[in-house]
Amino acid sequence: MKHFSTQDFAMLDKQYRAKLINSLSGFKSANLVGTQDALGNTNLSMVSSVFHIGADPALVGMIMRPDSVPRDTLTNIKHHGFYTINHVCRDIFQQAHQASARYGAQESEFEKVGLTPEYLDGVLAPFVAESRLKFAVKMREIMPLSINNTILVIGEICHLYCVSDAIKADGYIDIESLETVAVTGLDCYHITHRLSRLSYAKPNKPLQCLNLDGEDSAALIRSKNDPHQHS
Amino acid sequence: MKHFSTQDFAMLDKQYRAKLINSLSGFKSANLVGTQDALGNTNLSMVSSVFHIGADPALVGMIMRPDSVPRDTLTNIKHHGFYTINHVCRDIFQQAHQASARYGAQESEFEKVGLTPEYLDGVLAPFVAESRLKFAVKMREIMPLSINNTILVIGEICHLYCVSDAIKADGYIDIESLETVAVTGLDCYHITHRLSRLSYAKPNKPLQCLNLDGEDSAALIRSKNDPHQHS
């Protein structure tokens, strides 16, 4: 095993350190955040830091880094109070990555990278038409993190759109079937292969592998073989 | 496409809603958080909300939900000021999931699920010996999120341990080679298949696919065919 301490981190080349530390948290979500400015100019931003905060109300967070350059996305979110989050699927991962280039505020990343803006249900922010799972988010809190001057944006999901077949009987969404990609580090993209869904863990109870609909595979086999069931 | 609005969310069964909303953010990291209490009792907690906050200093965040039950992990973090974060690899994903069962404070999840506590470099928290990428974290901030009474824990990475071969020439860590798993929803685990690393995106410059060491694959081919190089 290779060991790095805080002192070692400090002595690393800046680019090497950024790639190393960005690899540590594990697989990250790949999302495109859509916004528009006061004039209706559209903006699209690649974000790998979207994370779940709660289900009721439905809350998501993301980390934005203001750095020293203007950040159109944050400005637009503050202006309209709405943004969209769009899953990056396999067939658009290169366009999504290109959207992270520093285009000017008057240039639309949609046009530059070849993705299609789409307006749904009166939301004041563009969706990505090519995305198979996307949702509109109402800004709820903007919390500056003084520890390193990044910004935590918390929002509430108010409209969800998803390919129907991917939504399973118990509410689980099979995003693998949508070919949603995962990100590692700053620049690597992955598709996935499911190992299993697992039953809710309880002390002193063995885990069961579940099928995609959240049913115990073994129980399912039993009920199918039992003539007294499903008669 | 299936459409849900805020009103639809409110009318869903609680369990259905939890599974649906937890699926939205995309692929999540799978990590085991190791702590110990004042008496040295070890604790292990499955967390799918660890996310990158910054590289210099090296900061990670995670969301904890206090709910109405005592949360040993948070109590222990506050007591010692240290915790460990350990990647969940394919061969231990079922044990990791079982660690989410509600064991008592005097019961060690390590023992209950069959994982091995390991102490390294004087850190006052146990690592998971079976994990191939793990790091010690010094607590920096505990921020209650008043919006839904969850807690954002921010810490600084102070020791990193990783299988050497996985660390590439430019600092990127190939966590796919470690068989680190990704999580979707509340209970589904996935291994991954790499599509590509991509070059840093710039306006008006085509993207290049990079090899695992972060080198332009095409440039690499050129230099290998050029007798004036590597002579």
UniProtKB/TrEMBL annotation, chains A, B:
Keyword NADP: no
Domain Flavin reductase like: residue ranges: 32-167
Cofactor(s) this protein cannot do without: FMN
Top-level taxon of origin: Bacteria
Cleaved signal peptide residues: none
Keyword flag Membrane: no
UniProt keyword list: Flavoprotein, FMN
Similarity field: Belongs to the flavoredoxin family.
Protein name: Flavin reductase
